[in-house]
Structures are given as C-alpha cells and as structure tokens.
C-alpha cells in the first residue's frame, strides 16, 4: 500500500493535530498583569472620578434643594425643582428648539458637509487650500465667531443688511436677523452650520479616503455611473463614519451654549434659548443653583438615553467583530 493510499484511507479528523494550549498563567503572573493595567489606567480613572463622576453626583444631590450656590444646601425641596421644570414653558420651549436644531443639523448641515467632502475628495487643483478654508471656521473659538456674526447681523449698519437691502425677495430680512423671534433661530442655525460643517467635512474626508479605490474602479468597469457608485458603493462603506457624525452632531446640539450666549444670550423672548443657556441663566444670573442643577440633570439624562439607544441600535453593528477574545474568536 502506497503512502498516498494510506493518506486517503486515514480519517479526515485524524490528519489534524490537536491544538496545544500554552501553559496557563500562574496566579502571581495574573496579579502582576492586573496591577500593571490598573497602574497605567489610574491617572485616567482619577481624572474621570474627580471631574466627571463627582460633578454628576453633586448636581444630582443639589437638585433636591432650594440652594443659591453659597454655603451648604439645607433647604430640602424634594422633587420640587423637577416639578417646576416640567411646568416651565421656557424649558419646554428649550426641548422643542433643541429638537429643531437636531433635525436641522441632520437634514441640512450634515448633507452640506458630505457634499463638500465628496467634491474635495476629487482630483482638483488647490483642493488642499479649499479644505483649509472650509475647515478654518471650526478652528475659531465660539466667542470669536459669535462676535463676528453679531457685527455682521447688526441691525441697520451690518454687512447682512447692506447685502440684502436692495434684493426684492430678501429685503424684508434687513434688521430682523437676531432681532425678530421668527428669524433668530434660523439665523442662529446658519451661523452654526458655518461654524461646524467643516468639522464633519473632515470626518467624511477621512472616511472617503479609507475606501479602497479598487472597489470604485470595479464598479466603474461594471458600468456604474458616478451617482450609482456613490449610492451603491460609497455610502454603504461610509455608513460607520456617517453614524459617528450624526451622534456627535446630536450631542453637540443638545449641549449647545457658548455660540448662543455670545450671539443672542437666548433672546429675543427666549426664541434662541437652549437648555444650557437656561441652566446658566438660573444658576449664575438668578442664583437658583438647585433649579439649575435639575436642568443639568435633565440634560444628562436626555444625552445618556440617546447615547444608549443610539449605541444599541446604530453603533452596535460597527463594533461587531471589533472586540475579539485572546484566541481570535468572538
């Protein structure tokens, strides 16, 4: 009997050598590994404890008191601040305006950023300069941007009024930008789009440059046009980047404060006020720190609920397969 015949008659499972496992780590080695990991993580854990967990606990604790921010809180109010929060028309308006900003960001701001990223991902002269120009507004601080647009939209003498004053369709906007409750929020959103779309554009550019060119070339060889390649190849491969961008945009809209405070301080008549602005007004202008803490807790709960739901149903697919066991298997 030849060697080949012997090999053919051998059972299939017999040709596989049993997997040899390495020696099991001793208890001392595991303790040393755990201690080393803890030692490296200790600075980050301390920072997280003192600057995240303790402020959350203090805000939650003081939200049950009528407290002005000085001394130790001793006037226990129970759920009084939260009942006041539920009955406050300004806070309910903050929720509605926050929802509008979230929707506008997803529907308007992010598509503009995506379209700009797709254009600047093409081979063209001076695209590095264009990228720098579009990203430059994000580098500016919110205070500088707020002061700049406060001057631009200044009633009467502002650049915006002079620009639209002679136009037949936009002439009625002159003097109203931040001064009219009906136009203040759309004007604020235009400033937000100018300020933040460059950040999302750079995220999309990074995602686009991570798409293999061979895939797009194969789709082009198969007869797919530019729109078909974008819809069937680019968008699916860019989906993880899009989901991260949406998450950052929503969280940023919920926590928006500095740009609003510098441009409008929440006015006129609360038309641009956000939850963060209302919290600042009550906490540092009216010295109702207990009520301001209740607002901060509400913001935290809203952000946490959205984050958990979004991670559960949107980001989970991006994490599948990313975390593996030591043996390489999930």
UniProtKB/TrEMBL annotation:
Transmembrane segments: 39-61, 99-120, 132-154, 184-206, 237-257, 289-310
Start-end of Basic residues biased regions: 12-23
Keywords, in A-Z order: Cell membrane, Membrane, Transmembrane, Transmembrane helix, Transport
Sections of the chain in a coiled coil: none
Every ABC transmembrane type-1 domain range: 95-310
Region (Disordered): 1-25
SUPFAM superfamilies hit by this protein: MetI-like
One Pfam family matching this protein: BPD_transp_1
Membrane association type: Multi-pass membrane protein
Compartment(s) where it occurs, according to its Swiss-Prot or TrEMBL record: Cell membrane
GO biological process: transmembrane transport
GO CC entries: plasma membrane
PANTHER family in alphabetical order: ABC TRANSPORTER PERMEASE PROTEIN (PTHR30193), DIACETYLCHITOBIOSE UPTAKE SYSTEM PERMEASE PROTEIN NGCF (PTHR30193:SF41)
Family statement drawn from the similarity comment of this UniProt entry: Belongs to the binding-protein-dependent transport system permease family.
Protein name: Sugar ABC transporter permease
């Amino acid at each position: 009997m030849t060697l080949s015949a012997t090999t053919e008659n051998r059972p299939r499972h017999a040709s596989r050598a049993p997997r040899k496992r390495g020696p099991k780590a001793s208890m001392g080695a595991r303790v040393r590994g755990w201690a080393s990991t803890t030692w490296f993580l200790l600075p980050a854990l301390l920072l997280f404890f003192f600057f995240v967990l303790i402020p959350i606990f203090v805000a939650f604790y003081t939200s049950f008191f009528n407290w002005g921010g000085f001394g130790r809180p001793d006037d226990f109010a129970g759920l009084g601040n939260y009942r006041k929060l539920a009955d406050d028309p300004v806070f309910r308006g903050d929720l509605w305006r926050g929802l509008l900003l979230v929707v506008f960001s997803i529907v308007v701001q992010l598509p503009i950023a995506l379209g700009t990223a797709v254009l600047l991902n093409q081979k063209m002269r001076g695209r590095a300069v264009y990228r720098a120009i579009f990203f430059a507004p994000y580098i500016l601080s919110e205070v500088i941007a707020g002061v700049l647009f406060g001057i631009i939209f200044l009633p009467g003498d502002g650049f915006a009024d002079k620009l639209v004053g002679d136009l037949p369709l936009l002439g009625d906007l002159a003097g109203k930008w931040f001064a009219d409750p009906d136009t203040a929020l759309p004007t604020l959103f235009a400033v937000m789009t100018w300020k933040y779309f460059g950040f999302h554009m750079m995220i999309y550019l990074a995602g686009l440059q991570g798409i293999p060119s061979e895939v797009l070339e194969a789709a082009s060889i198969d007869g797919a046009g530019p729109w078909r390649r974008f819809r069937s190849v680019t968008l699916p491969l860019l989906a993880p980047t899009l989901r991260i961008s949406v998450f950052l945009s929503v969280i940023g809209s919920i926590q928006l404060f500095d740009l609003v405070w510098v441009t409008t301080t929440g006015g006129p008549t609360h038309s641009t006020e956000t939850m963060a602005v209302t919290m600042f007004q009550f906490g540092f202008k009216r010295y109702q720190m207990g009520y301001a803490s209740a607002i901060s807790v509400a913001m935290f709960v809203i952000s946490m609920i959205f984050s958990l739901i979004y991670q559960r149903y949107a980001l989970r697919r991006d994490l599948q397969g990313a975390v593996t066991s030591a043996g390489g298997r999930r």
